[in-house]
């Protein structure tokens, strides 16, 4: 609509046909080039190294670049293969559990109005932005023998005697859900918030029960939020390093630790790289699956 | 399949059922909040735990304040705090500069392919697990024979912090009126001047808030830092994480509680800055 006064710099589809003014170009190139370069050097380039190394030969104390799939073969078989599968299973189930816990809470928040909604959201966000390590440390303390959870469970009679929860896979599971619950709630609230109230009311007016309305109107419209929440929780879980170490003890090694020990202890960079690339492939598959799930949704402006 | 007329009684039942659902949801939310806060409160309480013969215990044995001065006098802990403060300062500074540019360019760069490229990088950044970024950076420095230092640590932490800043700034840019920038251009302002005098002031609240976020984020970073620290260069989370492996030292909890309160205070500052400064432009817009 502003086209009429003929400023070429903002013609609808950008700079190719319309020649922007020189000053336009310099400033705009700068704000695009600086982040692009910085991220290229400190993010993309290291990843490229990992990718290249994953095809290299590992020698004693060194690496010979080349092209071999041996690292992948090793990473997908035996002990490492089992670790990879366990990591996938863990991430998928823990993320699903996270979402199941998050959904009712998000529904509650989305129904609040104004200031109360902000406070309710803030209460969810504060734990997330407080120190990750401290939260996990505290969990170890709670779940340890003689800790608060044991005392509580004994108190209400759900459990008798000492509780061996720490250093089990269950503990890792609880830790993962605990750590990533807030980022599962936020995208769900955002999406639930955008569902027009009129739509829900229309469904109710037409005689659908609350449950039916939820099942056939609200839930399908929440799909993009579910996908985002699944992505935001599952991705860090796939590479999780700290939670399994602190809560799982030696048991249930996950991919994050396996990769890190290839780098820090065994110094087998090609194998570690191959495992890192496998994690990225898993992330890619997840993204593709979730993209399919949200197919048909375009980003609608409020 | 046409909906039957709703009889009065079932409407009542629906209403009751609705109220029950609301209650259940409220209860669920309350439980989630308790679940999220309980461990944090627990950590705060255990910072005052007496423990047994100078060791932290999972059973609460009594109140003491001794771990706070003990943590204060622990020189390696102090050194780690010092490193953390410096590293997060530089990381936050760089992330704000680069991330603000990125957040703005994501929305307003004139060329669509550039915008697409930048958002592709940003989304990619968000879906690569931190441990993968960490090992890749370590590999990168090992191959290029660059010695690990606080500079490499800062460089390693920045990409994720940049994404955090970019997303906050991007959200703000989305709410800005493009026509104001166009008007400035029509009135003969150069692009650089428009950015400096029109865009920057409007983005300031978001930039300040994201600066604090980037700082706390960098201060808290553990996963990437684990790979890029050396025995002589430790940040606080890495130091605490390392000392946890030898059993929980009571000073760790004391230090951790202080860090927690520090983080909380910083977030409060971010929130206030955002609130205070986001009001001003609206007022001046009326001029």
From TrEMBL, chain A:
One annotated GO biological process: transmembrane transport
InterPro entries cross-referenced by the UniProt entry: MetI-like (IPR000515), MetI-like_sf (IPR035906)
Entry membrane topology: Multi-pass membrane protein
N-terminal signal peptide: none
Subcellular location: Cell membrane
UniProt keyword list: Cell membrane, Membrane, Transmembrane, Transmembrane helix, Transport
Primary location class: membrane
Pfam families associated with the record: BPD_transp_1
UniProt domain ABC transmembrane type-1: residue ranges: 84-290
GO CC terms in record: plasma membrane
TM spans (from-to): 30-55, 88-109, 121-144, 171-192, 225-247, 271-291
Coiled-coil spans in chain: none
Keyword Membrane: yes
Family: Belongs to the binding-protein-dependent transport system permease family. CysTW subfamily.
UniProt-recorded name of the protein: Spermidine/putrescine transport system permease protein/putrescine transport system permease protein
Organism field: Faunimonas pinastri
Taxonomic lineage of the native organism: Bacteria, Pseudomonadati, Pseudomonadota, Alphaproteobacteria, Hyphomicrobiales
UniProtKB/TrEMBL annotation, chain B:
Main location group: membrane
Keyword annotations: Cell membrane, Membrane, Transmembrane, Transmembrane helix, Transport
Compartment(s) of residence: Cell membrane
Cellular component GO terms, alphabetical: plasma membrane
Transmembrane segments: 26-48, 85-105, 117-142, 148-169, 197-217, 252-274
CDD domains assigned: TM_PBP2 (cd06261)
InterPro entries assigned: Bact_Polyamine_Transport (IPR051789), MetI-like (IPR000515), MetI-like_sf (IPR035906)
A biological process term (GO) from this entry: transmembrane transport
One Pfam family cited in the UniProt record for this chain: BPD_transp_1
Membrane topology of this protein: Multi-pass membrane protein
Domain ABC transmembrane type-1, residue spans: 81-270
Stated family: Belongs to the binding-protein-dependent transport system permease family. CysTW subfamily.
Protein name: Spermidine/putrescine transport system permease protein/putrescine transport system permease protein
